[in-house]
Structure formats: structure tokens, C-alpha cells
Amino acid sequence: MRKLINDPRQVAREMLEGLADTLPGLALLEEENVLLRADFPIGGLRDKVALISGGGSGHEPAHAGYIGHGMLDAAAVGDVFTSPSVDTVLAAIRAVAGPKGVLLIIKNYTGDRLNFGLAAELARAEGIAVDSVVVADDVALRDTVEPARRRGIAGTVLVHKIAGAAAASGADLAEVAAAARQAAEQVATMGVGLGACTVPATGRPGFQLDSGEAELGLGIHGEAGVRRVATPSAADLCATLLDAILQDRGWLPGQRVALLVNGLGGTPPMELAIVARAALAHLRLRGLLVERAWSGNFMTALEMPGCSLSLLALDDQRLSWLDQATLAPAWPGAGRIPAQRQLRATAASAAEAPPQGPALPGLRRAALAAAAALDAAEPLLTELDAACGDGDLGISMQRGAAAIRALPDAAWSAPDIALRAVGQALRQAIAGSSGPFYSTALLRAARRLETVPAPGARDWAAAFKDGVAAIAELGGAQVGDRTMLDALSPAADAFSTALEAGHPPAAAWRAALEAAEHGCAATAAMRPRLGRASYLGERTLGVPDAGASAALVWLKVLAG
What we know:
The chain has helices spanning about 10-20, 85-95, 110-125, 155-170, 175-185, 235-250, 270-285, 315-325, 360-375, 380-390, 395-405, 415-430, 435-450, 455-475, 485-500, 505-520, 545-560; strands at about 25-30, 35, 50-55, 75-80, 100-105, 130-135, 185-195, 215, 225-230, 255-265, 290-295, 305-315. The chain is an alpha/beta fold and about 550 residues long. InterPro entries: DhaK_dom, DhaL_dom, DhaL_dom_sf, Dihydroxyacetone_Kinase.
């Protein structure tokens, strides 16, 4: 896997230098991989307990992203997935220690415990007051190891927030340590990976997953989970993770909690939002009171796809500490959520009132046949669009087909009514460019037919040409630009010309279809001048345009 790095041996240092270059609130120690608050006076006295956390790099934004007033004062950072050395941790302690002492927040991994622990002993020998709290929030290991040996993972971020607020309030070292320790005891996390990450020094994934598999209960160092499962839906996944947490902690309906939906580095915000939706729904179904929730990347494992869910049991004091302001750049904010999803009714235009009247069976049969053809063509259209665009045309056409099938009988009561109804359905069902193009064309064609009670072939030909012209006006394309117009415009022209020449409608439509086929095939040799495909230039050559191909699909059905 390719990575945007210079030297695998310098990844951690260059990352820290990049953070210090771009975040004015951070300063970097010259000879150690330690980031600290830039507003700390060198050698000056501190009026608060100093907080230090850290660990291997590769977990960004942890831990440097949580440095700032109200959270951490320093982070000691090791190489990728490797604990910082004793000297690095000791340098962090010396850099921020003041009269009120230092609290170390340690994730429960052997290397972290050893190096942070020895550094604490050395600091105490120098007369620095140091205490430590170990976070072991991973419930995946509940059947494998005793609670004290569980891993520390994303729930550690919530402990940072609680301890940071307690320290900012002026509490002494014992009080801050107690607050952090109680939070660590009341937070639980479970994660799932949909694939492995690649450590820069090795250049290969840490494990292999077959298609349709997921690793349940993994940590944050690229390791495999406790068991491999078939990839579940987001809703089923959330139920599995949350039920494991609730079973482990014995939390009952009425328990107040905060929820942290954490991405592992390779999961887009879209999917994390879907997970958050499912997690909130499941927790409310189980009777828990979710008072705060956050979704995003908090403690990652490089580019691993997957997520973890953390729950923190709340009381009034912990909730108050979560709500305290912080200047840490990676903390996302208050996390307040509505008691339920807020919905507003969509106002409908009078022009969109449902049509009335009996259906014309011929119109409906033709539209349903086109819908069926677009359904069947989904794999082809997806493949063509993926080669030159974003790959969503196939599923967009399927959504359009479903919308056509869902139209009521009265939508087919007259040609102009049917065209408007289909246009409205496609506008609502298909995002991107296809929905507006087809909707505009159908609305323009409907205007041509609204004063014609029983349109003949020439009326339909005029409506066809009007619709094609509307697409050209809306998008600014012309024939030769490699768009749907390269199929539709020749077809409309050929149909009209054949009718004018006296050919019967069936023969005229065959001429239209032949023109559309030639036009669609010709797009394979065209450089795109509009749309997303235009960014690819000559790389699109050899592949016909997906939009023209989709038009050809339904044109062929109408010919039958």
C-alpha cells in the first residue's frame, strides 16, 4: 500500500513537526517526541495538575489532538504502534510538571505501562509528584483475560476529557486522579474491523479478511480481533457491540450514558453517521438515557476500516466535566443531542397534487417495461459509470425505476399527466445529474402534449425533440460532448425525419433506435467535455458514455 511518507523511520517525528507547524497551540520538544501546550511558560509555575497521555503514533488525532486547556498538557509519542520510550515520557513530565504534580493517563498495553511506569518512578526520585491511571475499557476480552488486563482503547479519550476538566477546575492531584480513575472504571468499548491497516515499516496488512468478513473485538494496533464474523449490517453490528458492553457492565434501563462512535481511520463520516443512528436507536430501545454523543475519528489505527463504540456511565459530576469547554483541537464540542430526531413536514406544491382519472394501460406498460430494463441493466451501467465517473448511475436508475413502479393508477390518466408524474418521481428519486435532466425533459415534453387530447406519432416526436432540447439547455451540452445527448438527439431527429418522410411510426422508431445505437457507440471515441468524466480526459476512450448507454436501454424497450 502506498503512503504519503518520506522515510518510514521518521514517520512519528515528521508527523509531530507537521502538527506543530499547523497548530499554534502546540509546541514540540527539540530532542524528544513530545508535544505540549505552547502557552506553558518554560520553567514557570503551574496552577493546576498537569495531564500527560500518549502512546504509539498511528492513532491520530490521539493523543496530540487532545492537548489544550481543559484536556491534556502534553503527549509522549512513540513510533507507529510502539510505546514511547522511558526518556520520552520523562521528558514530557519534566516539561509540564508544576507544584500540583502530574497525572499520567495510560492505555493498558504492556509497553505503555512499563515505559510510563518507569518514567513516573524516575520523576518521583527527582521530587516530582506523579500519579497514574490505567484505562482498560475493551470488553472484547471479557472471556479471555481478567478485567485488569484488558486493553485500553477509544474510551481513553473520554477519560482525557473528564480528567482535563477536573484539573482545570483547580482540583489537586489526588482529586484529579480519582476523577480519572472513576471514569476509567465506568467506560467500556468494543470495536470491529472491516479490513486491516498497513504499518509503514512493514508495508503489508496486519491480517487478511475474505470478502464479507469482519474482525470483531479488535484493538487499535492493527491486530486481529477475538473472532471473525460475517459482515453484518450497521444496525446488527451496533446491536452486537452494544449488547456486549451492556452485558459486561450490567447496565440496566434508566442508566445515563455518553456515547462515542469512533472511526478507526478508514471509515468515512457517512458510515459513522449511519452507525451513530443505529447505536442511538438500539440504546434507546434498551432503555438507556443517552445524554451526550459524538461521532468521528478519535483514536484510529492508521487507515483501518471499522469503528468502535464506547459508553461512559454518567452522573451529574461527570456530565458537568464533559460539558466544560476545552481548547483541544480534536475535541468535537459539547455533544448535546436532541431527545429524538427532529422532523419537519415537507410542504408540497399545488402543482404536485395527485392526478385523478383512470389509467391508460399502454402508457403504463411502456413505462414499466423501461423500468424493468433499467433494473436489469444496473451492473452494466454501474461498470460503465465507474470507469469514467463515480459509479452511481446504475443504482440511480434502479431508484428511478422503483419510483416509476410506485406511481398510482391515476398518474397514467393522460399523456401529459403521465410525463409530469414520471418527471416528478425521477426528480425525487435520482440525485446527481440524471434526475434533473430527465425531469426537465419530461416536463418540457408534457407541455407540448397538454393541449393534445389524443396525441399522434408526430405529436410524440415533437414532444421528444422538446425534451432533448431541454436537456441541452439545462446542461449546456451538445452532440459530441459525450453525454446522453449523443444517443437522444440523433434518435429524436431520426424519428421526426422518418415520420415527415411518410414512414409508419414503427419504422420511424426503428430508425430512431438505430441512430441512438450509433450515437452511443460513437461516445467511446469521444473526449468528454462536460461532467465528471471530463476530468479524466483520454482515459475515458474506449468506453461508451454511461448516460448515453442508459438512454439506449429504455429506448430499446420502447421500440418493442
